[in-house]
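Human: Here is a favour to ask of a fellow structure person. Comparing notes only helps if you start from a blank page. I am asking you to supply a protein in sequence and structure-token form. Write it directly below this note and I will take it from there.

Assistant:
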Amino acid sequence: MTGPGCGDAAEGLSGAEIEEIRRVFALLRIAAGRARADEAGALADRLVRVVHPGPPGPSPGADSLTARELDVLALAAVGHRNAEIAVRMGISAETVKSYLRTAMGRLGVHSRHAAVGAARAAGRIP
């Protein structure tokens, strides 16, 4: 790894670590080229796991999800958009967004796709 601004950053890195860095940058390039935000968000979550893998198993935040957050995630899991979820639950689309943001924060993820995946992995939604 050489070039402007790299300095001695590669010193002490193994070949495997350098390859991992190359893979991470490849993921970044892919994510930057995605048109759909949910795809880019899923790739960003994957990138975070590559750079900083968390503990194995379900997220500890999965147990703290409320019933309403779980309802929203379950509807999102089967492909409903925020407006459709809002109608089905009798709440506003903004409230749906709020539930999703809170659930993502509790689960430690950055996209609705990743939140659905984490809730499923924890056995909280089908």
Summary: The chain has a mean pLDDT of 78. The helical segments are 15-33, 37-51, 67-77, 82-89, 93-107, 112-121.
